[in-house]
Amino acid sequence: MYPIERVRLYPKDRLVWKAFEILGDLETKVGEQLQRLDAATILSLTAYPFLIDTLLRSLCCTEEQGACAEMALALWKVADLPAVY
């Protein structure tokens, strides 16, 4: 599943058993759910270790090694993943 699909399912899973009389009410509730997403929740929904690893490896090919290592450690810490660099 792509990361954006996980974000799309987040409000859907919270509203699955709710009944709405008009489509506008459902649209409003979905919008409210999406607006409540904070950075930590979005990160938890979209942070796949293999994607982060691939991005970091591609950045390390173009950036100074020291700056790349700092960036990698910061990203892994935010994503609450074990540091492997």
Automatic annotation (TrEMBL):
Record protein name field: Uncharacterized protein
Source organism per UniProt: Gloeobacter morelensis MG652769
